[in-house]
């Protein structure tokens, strides 16, 4: 009788451990397939499509926008190469200046009605970013489009 009780206990333990392993695997699959952060190029493409639609950008403006975004990405990359843990906080003003420069350059290639709509887009993004930070309790996100 003692052997049967021990066997039963081991089988029950094995079933619970198997359930835990399968649950962990299923959770991992769920997270990988549904909670995926967007790749920077994908974000940039979506951002460009939104601006192209909302601002009715010409082909020349799209080319200029892409050049501005490429230059901004390169500048961000230069700053981030210098980062270590202490330097991250020190670099934030520099990154903010790069972002402001990018915004000013984009505004310079837009017509007056396009600038007004671009201001709306920026305000919507800032509001969305703030809501995300409040909901997630996260640190401020990097500017979109980089």
Oligomer: single chain
Sheet having the most strands: none
**Which residues form runs of ≥5 with pLDDT under 50?**
138-146
- Number of structural domains: 2
Instruction: Give me the count of strands.
Output: 0
Cα-atom radius of gyration? 25 Å
Q: What fraction, in percent, of the residue positions are helical?
A: over 70%
Overall shape: it is elongated
The CA-CA distance between the termini, in Å, is 69 Å
Average pLDDT value?
84
Share of β-strand residues? under 5%
Order of helices and strands: HHHHH
Secondary-structure-based class equals: mainly alpha
In DSSP terms (H or I, runs of 4 or more residues), the helix count works out at 5
Question: Which features does this protein show?
Answer:
mainly alpha; disordered C terminus; 146 residues
Question: Please, could you describe this protein's structure?
Answer:
The structure is a single chain. With 146 residues, this protein is mostly helical. The chain folds into 2 domains: 1-36; 40-136. 83% of the residues lie in helices and 0% in strands. The protein has 5 helices and no strands. It has helices at residues 2-34, 40-55, 59-81, 85-108, 112-136. Helix 3 (59-81) runs antiparallel to helix 4. The longest helix is centred in the first third of the chain and has 33 residues, at 2-34. The chain is elongated and about 85 Å long. The termini are far apart. Mean pLDDT is 84; it is low at 138-146.
List the helices and strands and how they pair.
Layout: H1 2-34, H2 40-55, H3 59-81, H4 85-108, H5 112-136
Helix pairs in contact: 3-4
């Amino acid at each position: 009788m003692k052997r049967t009780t021990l066997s039963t206990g081991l089988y029950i333990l094995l079933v619970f451990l198997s359930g835990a392993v399968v649950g962990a695997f299923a959770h991992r699959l769920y997270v990988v397939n549904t909670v995926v952060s967007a790749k920077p190029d994908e974000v940039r493409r979506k951002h460009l499509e939104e601006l192209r639609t909302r601002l009715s950008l010409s082909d020349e403006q799209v080319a200029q926008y892409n050049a501005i975004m490429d230059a901004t990405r390169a500048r961000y990359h230069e700053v981030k190469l210098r980062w270590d843990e202490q330097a991250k906080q020190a670099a934030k003003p520099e990154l903010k200046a790069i972002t402001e420069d990018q915004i000013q350059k984009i505004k310079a290639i837009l017509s007056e009605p396009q600038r007004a709509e671009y201001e709306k887009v920026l305000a919507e993004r800032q509001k969305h970013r703030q809501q995300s930070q409040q909901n997630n309790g996260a640190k401020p996100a990097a500017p979109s489009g980089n």
